[in-house]
Each structure stands twice: as structure tokens, then as C-alpha cells.
Amino acid sequence: MRSTRRTLLAWAGSVGLTGWTPLAHAGGQAEEPLADSVRTALASAVAGEGAPPKLDFPTVDARLVYLRWLGAMSQRLARRKPDFDVRREFLETVWYESRRAGLDTALVLGLIEVESGFRKYAISVVGARSYMQVMPFWARLIGDGDASRLFHMQTNLRFGCVILRHYLDREKGDLFMALGRYNGSRGKAPYPTMVMAVRRRWEFTDPASLAPIVSPTSR
Questions:
Q1: Distance between CA atoms of 69 and 63, rounded to whole angstroms?
Q2: Per residue in 87-100, pLDDT tens?
């Protein structure tokens, strides 16, 4: 019962009900054998990080949606990252890397908040690093072997998004199980429940989509 109470308090804190948010909640991702084809695919997926992301929009409207999202998220993140340019670059990269990996951006932001509290140089007790608390062994498995580069913003975000995508694919789209695997607690409820709760803080509804449509005959 006490354990359950502590877990509920942690969940409540994570969604702002107690005014407390965990600075880091990283577990230990397990190093698992990878088939050569999977390792090659993952290595290819993380290749090319380091250059500023190039945001391409198919239409002007799509770009305007992104800019409205950026403005809303920038306000929400201001307490965590007071410098506007740092905040903009971070959000731009999260947007780019989450979509590149086929992930929901709100989910990635929620995971980052739970994992590291948006701290670039966060290190967990098991050695996971930076925003998405990537374990150093991933640098050896699918990177160039230099684990120190996991503190580079885009490197960390790319690795984290690629790894989460990999776990989602392994779990056949089961987000609950994939999040547990990411945290090293596969099959246990606290971590996935916490991430999904915090995710709601970062969801975005475009105000333009809520504007009433006025037809010429109704004027």
C-alpha cells in the first residue's frame, strides 16, 4: 500500500497536481543483442546528426501551424529554458527529430520532461545521459563509439527518438510496452503511465482550426 501511495504521489507530481516534477526518472535500458540488419538500420537512422535540422513545409499553411506550435511550446518551456534562442533551437530540433522518427512530438516532450526535466547534462544513477537519457552503450552499438557526444543536443534527441521508434517497432506499436522497454521496466505501469500523463502538458491544438467558419450568406 505504501509503495502504491508513493507511485500515485509521483504521478500526481508529474502532472502538476503537487507542484513537483521529477528532475530525472531514467531507468536502465537493457543492452540487447541486435541482428546485423537491425544494427545497420539503426546506425543509418542516427547517421548525419550534428547539422542543424532543415524544416521543410509542403505549404504555407503547414509552416504557419508549426510557427503557432512553436509559439505555444516556447511559452510553456520558458521557465525551464529562459533564453529564447536556446528554447527555439531545442524545440525546433525536437519537432524535426520526432517527425523524422515518426513519433508524436508531445510524446517526446513528455518523455524528456520525465527522463531529465529538460536538463542537457542530466546523468542518471545508471549512466543514462542528457535530455532523453540515452545509455552510453548505444554509442558503441549504432554510433561512432564516442559516448560523450550524447550530450550534444541533436545527437541525444536523434538517438532517443530512433531508439524509441525501434522499441515501438519491436512491440508492434504497443506504446505502453515500448515506453517500459525504453525505461528498462517493460511490463510495469508506473513509467508509461507517468509519461502519458505528462504528454498531455505538451499537446497542441491549433487555434486556427477552432475558428468558426462564416459563410458569405450568414453575414
A1: 10
A2: 999 999 999 999 99
The answer to whether 147 and 122 are in contact (CB under 8 A) is no
CB 103 within 8 A of CB 161: yes
Question: What does the DSSP assignment read for 126-150?
Answer: T--BTTTTB-THHHHHHS-S-GGGG
Domain segments of the chain as ranges:
52-204
pTM above 0.85, yes or no: no
Angle at 158 between CA 157 and CA 163, to 5 degrees: 100
For 137-175, write each residue's pLDDT tens digit: 999 999 989 999 999 999 999 999 999 999 999 999 999
Fold annotation for 52-204: Lysozyme (1.10.530)
Quick check: 42 and 162 in contact, CB under 8 A?
yes
Give the torsion sign (CA, 131, 151, 159, 138): negative
Q: How far apart are CA 185 and CA 148, in angstroms?
A: 25
